[in-house]
Design goal:
The complex is a heterodimer. Chain A is 30% helix and 23% strand. By secondary structure, chain A is an alpha+beta fold. In chain A, the strands form two sheets. Chain A has a five-stranded mixed β-sheet. Chain B is mainly alpha-helical. Chain B has a domain at 136-266. Chain B has a two-stranded antiparallel sheet. In chain B, strands 2-3 form a two-stranded antiparallel sheet. The two termini of chain B are 36 Å apart. Classes of the chains: A alpha+beta, B mainly alpha. At the A-B interface, α1, α2 and β4 of A face α3, α7 and α9 of B.
Chain lengths: 252, 266
């Protein structure tokens, strides 16, 4: 073995050791700072973790693009809806007067809100784009209350890391991290383009997370749970989406 | 071990003495290890991106210009293919199975690997002079006379001379440079512009393209251009001599036996 190749071998060995150690440290730090998504396992986990971690570092406080009134889509496409079920139909017949939003989990004051209560909180509006993973999109003006306002009312405990949100449709439940939950554009919306939020677009209450794809913007919200871990929810992958093969984090 | 750091044989010298050198050495260095490894990783990623990209497109085979577009608005054009969503009217009597879940996971993972590999290759290319030595055309090569002669040779499917096993011709250099410095950056940019979270941090990434749907349409056409490049690239490898060119990109060396074998088989 020549001197040159021995030196290369030693340098290579040190580099490889440093690389493995570096990866180990990076993984620990990433976990500590909330840069690892719940669906980080499996063959696609590395790509998902890279996307989620880099976007959390780059976009934690950035605002989704907002548009002018003239850019609002004339025909906001509501997408297809599965049958909503007897419970929904009963509530709709009553003008949604009995619609409740319950909030529980790691909060100081678990609560149940009526739509009327939610509408009594300071109204906020945003003109943002709904972006479907399939490729289509539309711009609408959304009216509602920032999720952070509701979370402040119930008192989120410091160990909280995720907000799980459920639709009245049993197959639809999602979760987001606190960066998105406390983001100023994350709304519980009940109005659209100056009117009531149509049922097709998620009325009476829809989660709006404009920095993520449409499927994270769950319609017909009835229940929020604040938690420090997604392990005990469903298959522990973060939401119904990864269980159906779709990424949990949909900021892309 | 010793070959790890070796660079290409000096081009000029090797063309002049190639035959003698080949006969003497039986084989000689052509592509460096880093070029070969990044080439094949990129190939693998591109295939994954292409297949998954097609799967994603069939869920909405309509394209628009501007910020927004959906089945209620008029498209710029619609691909004449069936869709994996019943909401898209295609004229076909059936709906394809939805493959978007794994396709999207794999699309973004392959994109990460491709971008990191490309970054490594670009750093290597600039620092070792690879772009300058092997890909930038010689000054005289860009004259209209030289270029037109090469274009004519290509159109006649004329087999390249043996010297070309050692160096790229001008058209080849220009198309590689176009792919590396125009198409790849453009496909990455338009891809990133489709991320609502990325756009929140860097809104100019999408507004400068004229909006989200414009970015998607450009992404589609750049992918089409890259696919066209891949097809021509593979055809040219068969024309130039499959064994010697594949051998060189796998082993890094031009092998006299394979070069001769290619000659006999055509």
């Amino acid at each position: 073995m020549t001197d040159l190749s021995r030196r290369k071998l030693i340098i290579g060995g040190i580099a490889a050791t440093a690389g493995v150690a570096g990866l180990g440290v990076a993984a620990r730090l990433a976990e500590k700072y909330g840069l690892v998504p719940p669906d980080h396992g499996g063959i696609f986990g590395i790509g998902e973790t890279l996307t989620y971690a880099s976007q959390r570092l780059l976009t934690r406080h950035s605002l989704a693009r907002e548009f002018s009134r003239s850019q609002i889509s004339q025909r906001p496409f509501p997408n297809e809806l599965a049958p909503l079920g007897d419970e929904f139909n009963r509530l709709q017949a009553g003008g949604f007067a009995d619609w409740r939003l319950t909030v529980d989990g790691m909060v100081d004051r678990p609560a149940s809100f009526s739509l009327e209560q939610i509408k009594s909180y300071p109204l906020r509006s945003q003109i943002t784009e709904v972006v479907c993973e399939e490729g289509w999109s539309y711009v609408a003006e959304w009216h509602g209350v920032p999720l952070s306002h509701v979370l402040d009312l119930v008192g989120v405990q410091p160990q909280a890391r995720y907000v799980v949100y459920y639709s009245i449709q049993p197959d639809w439940w999602e979760s987001m991290d606190m960066a998105d939950a406390l983001h100023p554009q994350t709304f519980l919306t009940y109005g659209m383009n100056g009117d009531e939020l149509p049922v097709g677009n998620g009325g009476p209450l829809r989660m709006r997370v404009p920095r993520q794809l449409g499927y994270k913007n769950v319609k017909f919200i009835t229940h929020l749970t604040v938690t420090d871990s997604m392990k005990k929810f469903g298959q522990g992958l973060g939401s119904a989406s990864p269980e159906a093969g779709y990424a949990w984090y949909a900021g892309i | 071990m010793a070959t790890m750091g070796s660079v290409q044989a000096p081009v000029e010298a090797s063309i002049a003495t190639s035959k003698a050198a080949i006969r003497a050495a039986k084989s000689a260095a052509r592509h460096s290890a880093l070029v070969r490894v990044t080439h094949w990783i990129t190939t693998l990623c591109f295939m994954a991106l292409l297949v998954t990209g097609m799967e994603i497109v069939i869920s909405h085979p309509r394209f628009y210009w501007g910020e927004t577009g959906n089945v209620l608005t008029t498209p710029l054009f619609q691909l004449p293919i069936p869709s994996s969503r019943a909401l898209v009217k295609t004229g076909y009597g059936y709906v394809m199975p939805d493959q978007n879940g794994w396709s999207r996971y794999l699309h973004f993972e392959a994109a990460w690997v491709a971008v990191l590999t490309g970054l490594l290759y670009a750093i290597y290319g600039f620092f070792t002079g690879h772009f300058w030595k092997n890909l930038s055309p010689g000054r005289g090569d860009l004259s209209w006379r030289t270029l037109s002669a090469e274009i004519v040779n290509h159109l006649r499917f004329k087999r390249p001379s043996e010297a070309e096993a050692w160096s790229y011709n001008t058209l080849q250099r220009l198309s590689y440079l176009f792919v590396i410095f125009i198409l790849f950056p453009l496909v990455i940019w338009t891809g990133l512009a489709l991320s609502p979270a990325f756009d929140s941090a860097f809104p100019a990434a999408v507004t400068s393209l004229g909006g989200r749907q414009s970015a998607r349409t450009i992404h589609f056409f750049v992918s089409l251009a890259l696919t066209l490049f891949l097809l021509v690239h593979v055809v040219m490898i068969f024309l130039a001599g499959f064994k010697s060119r594949m051998g060189a990109m796998i082993t890094g060396r031009v092998n006299a036996g394979r070069l001769a074998g290619d000659k006999e088989s055509t």
